[in-house]
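Listing S7. Sequence submitted for prediction.
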Amino acid sequence: MGCNARLAKSFEYALVLPLEPKSKYILFSDCHRGSGKANDNFLKDEFIYLAALKYYERRCFTYLELGDGDELWENRSIEKIKETHPHSFETLSRLYYKNRLYIIYGNHDMVKKNASFQKNYCESFYSGQLFCHYPACFGIRFYPSIILKDAFGKKDIYLTHGHQASLMNSTFWKINRFLVRHIWKYLELIGIPDPTSAAKNNTRKEKTEKTLLKWAKNHSVILITGHTHRPMAGTKESPFFNTGSCIHPAGITGIEIENRCITLVKWSLGTRHDQEVYVKREALAETVCVDEYV
């Protein structure tokens, strides 16, 4: 099965959400929430991530996570991840019960499509902040993709993780999981990057992005993915966007969709004149509106 067929199959089972002037979505991907060990890349950015989510929660955005939210190649159990990041899971649960949370699975958390995993994910977890068990996302479903259906019949926005562009990260993902879990997980600790990863290999990254852009053009849709960890803002000529990731040393990146317009944003630490440290939001590129596409 080729890339086109894998993407087509993914969108056969897509969740469809409205894209209207009043719609407000924030898209993050590739958080890779881990178990708190040295290879938990999310730890250093969790404070920024939580500050960003608080901003979007106050402004009534719906949170769409585009895959690899949890690092389930290096870690076998979601319970340890929930114990390590209770504040993040409390926020996600709160959004879920407000009907403002939808999650896509990627290659690193492909097991989320299994019914048995969904049951474990829904179990409550202990909150170190509230000193009690906090209700998890009871009845949550995980999706291969999401389609934002434009209310005015312009371009629809297609959302998925993006691993479908790679045979080894889609069809043969279990082989890559084995290599990461038993080999690259330990070599990463001494500074040797995983050569099979699109996020850590520029050649694979560029090939993946070109494949996804070509698919978006051929199918006349706007496509937004994660997977490569490289933030990308589309243009009128290029209908492909990438959220980036939540594990970059310089901060986290995501995509806001508001009033049918798309903005690539970055959240990072800043310093005021009095040396006070704060979390700041900045747009990385010009906003692109759906109406600009023909």
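Caption to Listing S7: primary sequence and predicted structure tokens for the chain studied. The first strand starts at residue 15 and ends at 19. The chain has a mean pLDDT of 91.
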